[in-house]
């Protein structure tokens, strides 16, 4: 049976792995990203949007949801760039890095979930996975550091928890949850790969396969949780 997936933040490494996996299986894929598409990808309905704020995504979502959507994956994330690296100490925290991290890791997903809300309420059995990070777990934090990223992902998990409760009141068959993808070979993780234990770094293709399995097996009871790449809950 052909599925229809919506990938938001579709220009990143994990998102590309998801796209390739779904296309290879013959599924319908719609994709949204801020970055322009370098060249067309056969089988993907691709849309370029800078933001979903103030109704900016409404026309695109209306077009996408003309066909029933199986699942939505929000893949946006920012850890470093523009001269900023993850902070090792409180003294390294800057307003610029905080703003950038919150803008991409939190604000953008907020407004996409806001724009998606009318559609998610009407889609029986829809699954919505928001890529988060295990380092956003407060109870799991034993190392400190990475202030901007940890704070933004912790806030993202709260967003998902709140939105899942609201969605569950009107669509009891839906599941909306945060999802930790594990360490993936991508531009986000590139500066930090040398010290990883053997076997921890996964290719984008392997990560995509694991995440798709978790999303497909998810149930309404998983709503509001932070799930690991193997489907196990991670404590907040």
TrEMBL record:
Gene Ontology molecular function: oxidoreductase activity
Superkingdom, according to UniProt?
Answer: Bacteria
Which segments cross the bilayer? Answer: none
A UniProt-annotated Pfam family: adh_short
Recorded hits in InterPro entries, A to Z, give:
Fungal_SecMetab_SDRs, NAD(P)-bd_dom_sf, SDR_fam
Q: What are the record's GO terms for cellular component?
A: cytoplasm
**PANTHER family reported for this sequence:** NAD(P)-BINDING ROSSMANN-FOLD SUPERFAMILY PROTEIN, SHORT-CHAIN DEHYDROGENASE/REDUCTASE
The identity of this protein, by name, is Short chain dehydrogenase/reductase family oxidoreductase
Q: What organism is the protein native to?
A: Alishewanella jeotgali KCTC 22429
């Amino acid at each position: 049976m052909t599925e229809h997936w919506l990938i938001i933040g579709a220009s990143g490494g994990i998102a590309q792995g998801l796209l390739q996996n779904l296309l290879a299986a013959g599924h319908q894929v719609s994709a949204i990203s801020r970055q322009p598409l370098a060249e067309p990808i056969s089988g993907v309905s691709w849309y370029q949007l800078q933001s979903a704020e103030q109704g900016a995504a409404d026309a695109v979502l209306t077009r996408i949801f003309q066909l029933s959507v199986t699942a939505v994956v929000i893949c946006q994330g920012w850890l470093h760039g523009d001269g900023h690296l993850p902070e090792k100490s409180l003294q390294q925290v800057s307003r610029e890095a905080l703003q950038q991290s919150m803008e991409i890791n939190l604000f953008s997903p907020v407004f996409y979930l806001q724009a998606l809300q009318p559609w998610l309420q009407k889609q029986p059995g829809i699954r919505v996975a928001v890529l988060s990070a295990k380092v956003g777990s407060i109870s799991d934090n034993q190392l400190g550091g990475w202030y901007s990223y940890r704070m933004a992902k912790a806030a993202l998990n709260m967003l998902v928890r709140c939105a899942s409760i609201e969605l569950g009141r009107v669509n009891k068959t839906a599941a909306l949850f945060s999802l930790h993808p594990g360490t993936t070979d991508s531009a986000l993780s590139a500066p930090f790969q040398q010290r990883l234990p053997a076997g921890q770094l996964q290719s984008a293709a392997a990560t995509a396969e694991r995440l798709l399995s978790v999303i497909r097996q998810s149930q309404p009871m998983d709503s509001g949780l932070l799930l690991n790449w193997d489907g196990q809950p991670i404590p907040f």
